[in-house]
Amino acid sequence: MTTKLVIGLDGHSSGERALQYGQQLARMIGTCELIVLYVIEWSPYSFQTPEENAERHKRREEEISTALERVVTPAVKTLKDAGLKARGLVKHGNVADTLNKVAVDEGAEQIVVSRSAETGLSKRIFGSSTANLVMEASVPVTVVG
Questions:
Q1: Domain, as residue range, for 38
Q2: Per residue, what are the HEC states of 59-104?
Q3: In angstroms, rounded to a whole number, what is the distance separating the alpha carbons of residues 118 and 121?
Q4: Number of compact structural domains in the chain
Q5: Residue 99: CB atoms within 10 Å
Q6: pLDDT tens digit string along 13-58?
Q7: pTM, 2 dp
Q8: CATH number at residue 17
Q9: Is residue 123 part of a domain?
Q10: In whole angstroms, how far apart are CA 62 and each of 10, 39, 55, 59?
């Protein structure tokens, strides 16, 4: 049976650390599939003008294309070049909720993420995505420092 791991990337060097750890973990496990996931933060509670709504679909498609090109595809290539089974996804939504949903939907055994880069007032008011994921996840979460 193949073990599935979800690796959450953020497009920064912290995501690279999560990717490296996921790669190490996959080697230790053996038969493993790595699902590389980049979540584009999006809230259904933000208010849009009619013009923004008209452009929304196009903007979302551009965001997905950019995230695939710059973050996900290179990460998946790195894993495949290392001889591992990997595929990539880009989703819109709340980071913690989306990582958890993908892990559950895919039947993943674990989520690997890096420590959040949020600091200051934003972190104190909203909390970090990583902390929220750890508190709410349906599967074990490994947080790479």
A1: 3-118+128-144
A2: HHHHHHHHHHHHHHHHHHHHHHHCCCEEEEEEEEECHHHHHHHHHH
A3: 9
A4: 1
A5: 29
A6: 888 999 999 999 999 999 999 999 999 987 655 666 777 767 777 8
A7: 0.86
A8: 3.40.50.620
A9: no
A10: 17, 14, 11, 5
